[in-house]
UniProtKB/TrEMBL annotation:
UniProt xrefs under Pfam families: Sigma70_r2, Sigma70_r4
Name the UniProt record assigns to this protein: RNA polymerase sigma factor
BP terms from Gene Ontology: DNA-templated transcription initiation
Domain of life: Bacteria
PROSITE patterns for the chain: SIGMA70_ECF
Similarity section: Belongs to the sigma-70 factor family. ECF subfamily.
NCBIfam families associated with the record: sigma70-ECF
GO molecular function, one term: DNA binding
Keyword annotations: DNA-binding, Sigma factor, Transcription, Transcription regulation
């Protein structure tokens, strides 16, 4: 039985997405892997996966850039694992296109922040507030509960179920939490 792609996927123009985000994705992969050839492979794989999964992309749920960077993060991890298993492949590069490792941590945190922000938009407001206040801002449960006018147990329940919802949202985005 043939599967019909939803109309929303027609809005995903891979060529336009490549023109808009390809260079950024390349720089991200290059900083992570330190290898221009591997970075090019990552960008190609990102757009191949995006094209194949176009029916799962919903512009109402996440921005195209966030979705592509989530895919890129997964591909970079796969590529890094491949290098770990076959270290001789990394030795084949001359190292001339390697950037400093100082940017790597900053880039990881930036992409992670984008992904978490997008996932937080997908969960209910009560859960989002509970997670942001307790986990991201590090505020005590008692203080947050008092501010919201709810019992501490209710806040703890919102945090627990909010984290479950957040994990599910990230899985729907194609990101490993």
């Amino acid at each position: 039985m043939a599967r019909h792609r939803p109309a929303q996927t027609e809005a995903l123009d891979v060529q336009a997405a490549y023109a808009a985000h390809g260079p950024e994705l390349y720089r991200f992969a290059l900083r992570q892997l330190g290898d221009g050839g591997a970075a090019q492979d990552v960008v190609q794989e990102v757009f191949l996966r995006a094209w194949r999964a176009a029916d799962s992309y919903d512009p109402e749920l996440s921005g195209l850039r966030t979705w592509l960077f989530a895919i890129a993060r997964n591909v970079v991890v796969d590529e890094a694992r491949r290098f770990a298993v076959r270290p001789w492949q990394r030795d084949l590069t001359d190292g001339s296109d390697v950037t400093g490792p100082a940017d790597t941590g900053v880039t990881d945190r930036l992409v992670d922040a984008w992904v978490v922000e997008e996932a937080l938009r997908r969960i209910g407001e009560d859960h989002r507030v509970a997670i942001v206040q307790t986990h991201l801002r590090g505020r005590p449960h008692g203080e947050v509960a008092a501010e919201l006018g709810i019992p501490v147990g209710t806040l703890r329940s919102r945090v627990f179920y909010g984290l479950k919802a957040l994990r599910l949202a990230m899985e729907e985005m194609g990101v490993e939490p």
